[in-house]
Amino acid sequence: MPVIHSSIFVQASAEVCFDAALSIDIHMASTSRTRERAIAGRTSGLIQLGESVTWEAVHFGVKQRLTAVITELERPHRFVDEMVDGAFKRFWHEHRFVPQDGGTLMIDTFDYTAPLGWLGQVADGLFLTRYMDKFLRERNAYIKQACEQ
């Protein structure tokens, strides 16, 4: 069960960063490389506590769908999204926003279990953890750029 931790400093308020991270539209723009798009549930605007979104994207050359729900939300400091259906066996993704002088430290904790038992564990070691870390860092870099403009 890998846990990926990442952080990035953004020269914007916690409120601005929080809303950007909850934005379906910013999420789709930040993941255009994988052709990610919202196809069910909340499909635009800011997703809220208890709402779900179903994403469709292409990862590893395969079109996939994943549904996540916002299970915790403490505006503007923290929210959690959890997978309820999709390729992973499970995932829990915490987003934290810590005010700092001149901006906000955005902190992600992505805790997941790959599917397929021992085969998934091998995939984690070979490529999946690195792939997910890069995916999350690229998304946060996009959020940083959007918030600082």
From TrEMBL:
InterPro entries: COQ10_START, START-like_dom_sf
Name of one Pfam family that matches: Polyketide_cyc
Signal peptide: none
Domain Coenzyme Q-binding protein COQ10 START, chain residue ranges per copy: 49-122
Record protein name field: Ligand-binding SRPBCC domain-containing protein
Organism expressing this protein natively: Paenibacillus phyllosphaerae
Source taxonomy: Bacteria, Bacillati, Bacillota, Bacilli, Bacillales
